[in-house]
Amino acid sequence: MVAQAGHPAAELGAPVRQGWLDRAGRAVRFGIADRDTVMVALSGFLIRGGILILLVPSLVLPTVIGLAAFTGVDAFGIDGRASVWLVEMAMAAALAAAVWLVAAFVVGSIVDVWLIEAELDPNGHSPRQRRPLPDRRMILDLAAIRAFLALPLIAAILWASSRVYTSTYNELTAPGDLSSPFVWRVFQGAADGFLVIGVAWLVTETLGAIAIRRAVLLDRGVYRSIAEAALQLLRRPVSSAATIVGTLATFAVAALFAIAATSTAFDWVRIAVRTAGPTNLLTGLTEFAVLVGAALVLGFAWVAALAVSGVASAWRSAAFTEETADAAAGHSPN
After folding, report:
1. pTM of this prediction?
2. Residue with the larger pLDDT of the pair 136 and 69
3. Which helix (H) or strand (E) covers residue 40, if one does?
4. DSSP string of 267-328?
5. Domains in the chain: boundaries
């Protein structure tokens, strides 16, 4: 499949044949080329759930007593079944998740098109150049690709939810090792469910990333883009695996850095608040300075976490764009 003159792939400047390291280098340069690139990639990362990853360090794991105070005594019946209140809360959460998914699909599709066009710009990477919004049909196609590929992940989540429910009920009624946090014990009891979710997410996210790019570069339909994405993975196993592992490793490092930086700074702020109390003027000023310093460190940590996440997102987008453009040009895998 070779990009012809006038074809979207050719108009966007599909790269000539290059090795995987060359393509990875181009992707890295794209990720750090401009602040606007990082901001656009970061917006796509956050709307698709990245904000939840960054908020993890600020969350306090609930205890059994805390859960009981929030849910009340009627969350579970004596027979272990969920109460009406718990079912209503689950339905409300599902509705909120559905609304968020629609917004993520639409906004994420616009971000995808911007990043793909910027990466393959024939005039060089010019992120500040004004780019028209993709037409409605393109946005709907890209959103449909994401929605279709979300179905296996939703099925995995629904299956795993029963495992999580059972593990949660068991830990509430007959807890195991009380020296471990409640959430960790629930995770251990439903580890197979979380494993299935992780595998489903990896497969659908990879297929989606390639299918989106085939739809944009080659103007394919929804189902054809997905089918060709699967064929691309089969025809280029080594190159595809290198791209997947490379982007996952980058994201893992970025996520660990973000979590470590924000959690450390958050702990400093929490300690500073807890140790503050009625003291003399000199000690009070010292404690206030420590609190302000810890808050500033937390702010800098958040900025650093967002910057690293944006760079990693831009690099991932460019890496899959380079890989798909190379495959669309009919080059043999290398």
Report:
1. 0.76
2. 136
3. helix 35-45
4. HHHHHHHHH--S--HHHHHHHHHHHHHHHHHHHHHHHHHHHHHHHHHHHHHHHHHHHHHHHH
5. 8-328
